[in-house]
Write a structure and sequence with these properties.
The protein has a single domain, classed as 2-Layer Sandwich (Alpha-Beta Plaits), CATH 3.30.70.20. The protein has a 3-stranded antiparallel sheet, with no helix packed on it. Strands 1-2 form a two-stranded antiparallel ribbon. 10% of the residues lie in helices and 32% in strands. The protein has 96 residues and is mainly beta.
């Protein structure tokens, strides 16, 4: 069952919520984070052991940085993050 909303002028619109980020594909560029004003994602550091730490942790041995879902419930399904992602690492869809 898909959720149908309406735009301001009454046109039908189906939101596509951010459901997952493939951390093996994400390059941690932050473009999605910059266009999302709802705090849905956060940048994390990944150690060579695969553990996630704060991206700004100077004491951690960070292998690379990736985006992670932080507050999935805040997503409104606008799709702005998907439009700016250079690696297409996100999965969007309905929550039902």
């Amino acid at each position: 069952m898909s959720e149908i909303s309406h735009t301001r002028d009454g046109r039908a619109w189906t939101p596509a919520y951010l459901l997952a980020i493939d951390e093996t594909v994400c390059i941690g560029c932050g473009r999605c984070y910059k266009v999302c004003g709802r705090g849905v994602m956060t940048l994390k550091g990944m150690t060579d052991e695969g553990e996630f730490v704060d991206a700004d942790d100077d004491g951690a041995d960070i292998e690379r940085k990736v985006m992670r879902l932080d507050d999935a419930g805040a997503c409104i399904g606008c799709g702005a993050c998907a439009r700016v992602c250079p690696t297409n690492c996100q999965t969007h869809g309905q929550t039902h």
